[in-house]
């Protein structure tokens, strides 16, 4: 099996003194893994940053054996955020989500193109709020569509609208901007509340049923915002 493709580096680990095992999310083949010989050399390792976009040549003797990758830099994206720890942590968290939530060799062009949009979002003024909507769209494209309007009812309290989600065990206030996208809230506490809701949804609906744990990188990202 031999092919060329373009993908984002989502994980890497040392294989031996000179090589690494990497995972990439590619346009035409979904998530793929392979050994990069010489991946620890100065020539290559500088652009093997998590989140960078690479051109890859994949070679494998059979479907049951790990492949070998030759890589070239396509876009050095992560270095643009080396001085912004919050955004760099967000990149790491997103790539880790793709690592644990996607299956090997399952093509999904929507998610691939979402990654290009993700980097555009990082350069917007209200990037945290925009990222929250991006993450919801990611879950939708993975088959988990969280429709807030279907699980809330509206209350009026002192002339202010509140959206409430009720279950058998709890009553929860849902940030207005998740229902009314015209809401211009940029309050960090409100945004953190929304991220907490997404984390709970991720944990209960996606991770636990698949015997997976909440990624530490996601917790670290949220902690950088506090």
Order of helices and strands: EEEHEEHHHEEEHHH
The number of strands is 8
What portion of the residues fall into strands of 2 or more residues? 25-35%
Radius of gyration: 20 Å
Q: Can you give the helix content as a percent range?
A: 25-40%
Task: Report on the architecture of this protein.
The chain is of the alpha+beta class. The chain has 2 domains: 2-81, Nucleic acid-binding proteins (OB fold (Dihydrolipoamide Acetyltransferase, E2P)), CATH 2.40.50; 124-225, no CATH class. The chain contains 7 helices and 8 strands. It has helices at residues 42-45, 85-101, 109-122, 127-141, 176-179, 188-207, 216-225; strands at residues 2-14, 19-26, 30-37, 53-59, 67-75, 152-157, 160-166, 171-174. It has a 5-stranded mixed β-barrel with strand order 1-2-3-5-4. β4 (53-59) and β5 form a beta hairpin. The longest helix is centred in the last third of the chain and has 20 residues, at 188-207. The N and C termini lie far apart (47 Å).
Give the secondary structure arrangement, pairings included.
Layout: E1 2-14, E2 19-26, E3 30-37, H1 42-45, E4 53-59, E5 67-75, H2 85-101, H3 109-122, H4 127-141, E6 152-157, E7 160-166, E8 171-174, H5 176-179, H6 188-207, H7 216-225
Parallel strand pairs: 3-5
Antiparallel strand pairs: 1-2, 1-4, 2-3, 4-5, 6-7, 7-8
């Amino acid at each position: 099996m031999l092919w060329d493709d373009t993908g984002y580096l989502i994980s890497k680990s040392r294989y031996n003194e000179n090589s690494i095992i990497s995972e990439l999310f590619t346009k035409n083949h979904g998530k793929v893994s392979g050994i990069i010989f010489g991946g620890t050399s100065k020539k290559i390792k500088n652009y093997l940053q998590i989140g960078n976009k690479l051109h890859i040549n994949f070679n494998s003797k059979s479907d049951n054996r790990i492949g070998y990758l030759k890589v070239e830099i396509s876009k050095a994206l992560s270095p643009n955020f080396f001085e912004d720890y919050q955004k760099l942590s967000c990149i790491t968290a997103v790539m880790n989500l793709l690592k644990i939530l996607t299956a090997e060799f399952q093509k999904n062009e929507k998610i691939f193109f979402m990654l290009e949009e993700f980097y555009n979002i990082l350069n917007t003024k209200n990037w945290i709020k925009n990222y929250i909507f991006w993450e919801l769209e990611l879950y939708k494209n993975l088959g988990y569509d969280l429709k807030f309007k279907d699980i809330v009812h509206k209350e009026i309290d002192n002339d202010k609208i509140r959206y409430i989600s009720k279950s058998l065990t709890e009553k929860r206030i849902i940030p207005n901007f998740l229902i009314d996208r015209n809401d211009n809230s940029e309050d960090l506490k409100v945004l953190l509340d929304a991220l907490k809701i997404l984390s709970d949804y991720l944990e209960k609906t996606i991770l636990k049923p698949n015997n997976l744990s909440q990624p530490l990188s996601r917790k670290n990202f949220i902690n950088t915002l506090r």
